[in-house]
Amino acid sequence: MIRSTFAGFTTAQLAMSASQRALDVTGQNIANINTRGYSKQRLEISSLNNNGASFYSSKNGAKVGYGVEVTGISQLRDPFLDVQYRNQMSKLGTTDSLAAGYEQLTGIFDEASLDGVRAALRDISSALQKYSEEPNAKEIDTTVRSNMQILLNLFHDNAKRLQDITDEMTNDFQSNDVADVNQMLENIAELNKNIKNSQVLGNPALELQDQRNDLLDQLASYLPLSVKYESREIAPGQFLEVPNVYYTGTDGQTFTLVSDTDCGSLSADISGHPVRLSITGANGSGTADITDTIPSGTLKGTLDILNDSGAFDKGGSSVNGLGYYQTTLDSLVKTFAETFNALNIPVKKDQNGNYTVDKNGDPILEDVPAKMCPLFEKIDPNADFSASNIKIADGWMRSDYGITISKKVVNGEIGSTDTSNILNMINALKDPQKFESNGVSFFTGSFYDCFASLENTLAIDLKSANTTVQNQISVLKQTASTRDGVSGVQLDEEGMDLMHYNQSYTAAARLMTTLDEALDTLINKTGIVGR
């Protein structure tokens, strides 16, 4: 049986059409080489074969297909690499938030180029040393008090800046981080709707899918997620892949963030401490507090900075958050105030006006609060000493009394030239003190060394976070490079495809010309032999 006369022309026409469409796809790839989140597109084709058997079929017949069929356009993406990339984004989000928080604290506790707390402690020591050498120069008491006020001003400023950082991070967490996550969830659900509507009309909506994948990448930096595609029948024999986005906490609870065109949401409670975060799943799948169960992501890093206090937390925490630095600073201030108030308690006098001693000859100190001559008082008497709750005692400020110069009693009198108590204060500044809070002892050393230790701790935390960030960025870049090798547009590959498809188009055109020549021979040159 002779093949249909025009079948070859159909084959050539389909080949030209497929090559033309392939050139169009290549042009689309080249045009979007710099488009964020764009995935390389590929023309899907298949061989157009005979369907069924021929009436004149015989065992000696050779059947040839009818050309090529364009079945669609698809994206080149590797789901496994998407999972790797998003997991790494989540890890990076955690550490990057920690590093950002520590970076803000350096403005408070990094005194490498500033005259801050440590310089003020040195000035107090120098003023006390001068006072011990000139105990009758009462104006030096005023100098010591002025230096003490400078130190308290620094404590107040540090406390205020710590509170400002806390307030700013808390507000940003609610108004930016949580709000951004909710907006992305809504956008993903809206994209699902638009993609589905387009696919129903026969449009694969690949560009919309790119937007959705880009949003999923961004969302993964805030909290870990997993994406599963569900095949749904929208018409008899017509199926669509619908993505569902899930979040799973460290406690094993799983919540649906996005289900088709419905989405869940997050909400933050910043009214108290600690800051709390709750999730509401899509399609009413439940609500829960996830503050302590977020595995990774920007939200976890920010919550760790805001809520954790390191060793001061019950059971201890691996993160030295704002609470750690606030508690450490408050403990330093409390120990400083109580130490100097105790050293300034004067010797008690008897009813005759003589200074008293016990049976061992040691001075008996005043036990009446009104006569104990404290150097420091609490701004809020109902709260403990802290960086924000300390001031120069009113009595000392009014010069009702000054620094207790000596407590050495001889025959009911204190020598006018003895300055042993001032020397005790100088020694207290440099001698080891035990610093603790909430039953946790965190440092033993001088006041100067305690603040220096606080600086060192911050430097170590910041360096550790930055080092981890750099390592995670390196791993992320490697993963992104591998993923781009699959789904990214490469100019060299597209250039080769242009030449390849151009040649195939030319070859198909040549096939049509050849068939035309053969048909001309059949029609005009067959059967004229011998004429």
From TrEMBL:
Location(s), subcellular: Bacterial flagellum; Secreted
A Pfam family recorded for this sequence: FlgK_D1
Residue ranges constituting the Flagellar hook-associated protein FlgK helical domain according to the UniProt record: 103-344
Domain of life: Bacteria
Keywords: Bacterial flagellum, Cell projection, Cilium, Flagellum, Secreted
SUPFAM superfamilies assigned: Phase 1 flagellin
Domain Flagellar basal body rod protein N-terminal: 11-38
Domain Flagellar basal-body/hook protein C-terminal: 487-524
Family, per entry: Belongs to the flagella basal body rod proteins family.
Name recorded for this polypeptide: Flagellar hook-associated protein 1
This protein's encoding gene: flgK
